[in-house]
Amino acid sequence: MEPIYLDNAATTPLRDEVREAILECWTDYGNPSSVHGWGRRARNRLEEARERIAGVIGARRRELIFTGSGTEADNLAVLGRWRAWRRTHEGAGAVVCSAIEHSAVLAPVQAAGREGASVLILGVTNDGVLDTGALEEALAAEPAVVSVMWANNEVGTLQPVRELAERCRDAGVVYHTDAVQAFGRERVRVDEVPCGLLTLSAHKIGGPTGIGALFVREGVELEPLVHGGGQESGLRPGTEAVAAAVGFARAAELAEREREAEAARLARLRDRLQAGLLARIPGAEVNGGNAPRLPNILNLSIPGVDREVLLMSLDLEGVAASSGSACHSGAVEPSHVLTAMGRDSEQATPLRLSLGRTTTAEAIELAIERIAHVVERVRALAGV
Ligand code: PLP
C-alpha cells in the first residue's frame, strides 16, 4: 500500500538539493572560530548561509542568530527578552502571548511567570484569530514582550501580525512572532512587518532538523539562555552547526522561490481534501475554516471516534496524520487551541492533515477514500 504523508506541519522530507548542500559541507571541516584556513572556510560558509536566510526575510545578516531549533529560538525570544527587561527595569513586569501559541512559546511564558512576571494570555475568536481588542489593555502593562504567532500550527489560521507589530512598535514594546509554520508558505518579511523578534525553523521547509533561527532587530536587548563562548553575538554560544546552516539556507531560498505557485497548488489540494471529507464524513466540521489560513493545513473535528484509535487506524491504512496537539507521555490532552476557539475537542476528535511539497492530487483522492473508510469502520466498531 502506498503510504500517504499528511503530517508536513510536524516535519517535512529533506529536499535533495539540501541533502547535497549538507554533504558537500561535511566533506570539509573546520571550526568557524579558528583562525586557520579550515576555520576561515567554515566561517565563510556560515556567514554566507546567514546572509542568504536574512535576505529571504528582508533582514540584515547580523540580525540573524542560529539556534538548535525553533523551540530554542522561541525560548530565547521570550525568556531572553524577559530576563533582559528585568535587569534594567523596576517593578513587576509582564509577558504577553496568545492562547493558541505553540508550547515552545507557552512554556517559556509560564517560566517567566515563575520568575515573577505577570502573565497575560490573549484570547482568540471562534475562528482562531487573535482578538486584538485585548491588546490595548495588555500594552498598558508595558510588557517585556508580546508574542503572537504568524500562523497557528494546529488549525493554520493567520494572525494579524502587521497590525500587532505596528501597534507594539508605536507603544515601545518588543513584539515577537513565531513564524515557524508561516515561513515558506506566506510572505514573511521583517522589512514589511516591524516585529522585534521572529522565529524560524529549517525542518518545516525541507531543511534539516536541529537548526532554527531567531531574527533579532538591531537594538532589541536579549539575555542569553546558554553561557559559553561568544558565538552568535554571544546570544547562543556553542560551536556552530555549519552544515545545517548551509542546508537551512538552501531550503529557505528554494521555498521562497517556489512559494507563490506552491501555495496556490496546496490550497487547491487542501480545498479538494476538505470538500471530499465533508461530503463523506457525516458530522465532520472544519476548525478555522472561516479565517484566512495557511494553504497546507486542514483541521477537522470528527465526532464519534476515539482519537488514538482513529490515528492508529489511519496509520495502518497508510495515512500519516496528527491530532494537531501533543500527546504527553501517552496521555491524551484536549487541544488548548481548540479550547481557546470554543470547541470541545473531547466531544469531537480533532484531525490535522497537513500537505507539503511531495503531496500529489492522486494522493489526495486516495486519502479521502482511506480516511472516510477508516472513520466509518471505527464508528461502526464503536457502535456509533
Ligand atoms: N512553533 C511552531 C508554531 C511549531 O509548529 C513548531 C513545531 O512544531 C515549533 C515552534 C518548534 O519548532 P522546532 O521543531 O524546530 O523546535
**If you average the pLDDT, what whole number results?**
96
Which secondary-structure class do the elements indicate? alpha/beta
Q: SSE order, as H and E?
A: EHHEHEHEHEHEEEHEEHEHEH
Report the portion of residues in β strands: 5-15%
Q: Radius of gyration, Cα only, in angstroms? A: 21 Å
Description:
This protein is an alpha/beta fold and 384 residues long. The protein folds into 2 domains: 4-12 and 259-381, Alpha-Beta Complex (Aspartate Aminotransferase, domain 1); 16-254, 3-Layer(aba) Sandwich (Aspartate Aminotransferase, domain 2). The chain is built from 10 helices and 12 strands. A 7-stranded mixed β-sheet has the order 2-8-7-6-5-3-4, with helices on both faces. It has a 3-stranded antiparallel β-sheet with strand order 9-10-12, with helices on one face. Helix 1 (16-26) runs antiparallel to helix 7 and helix 3 packs parallel to helix 4 (103-114). 48% of the residues are buried. The structure holds pyridoxal-5'-phosphate.
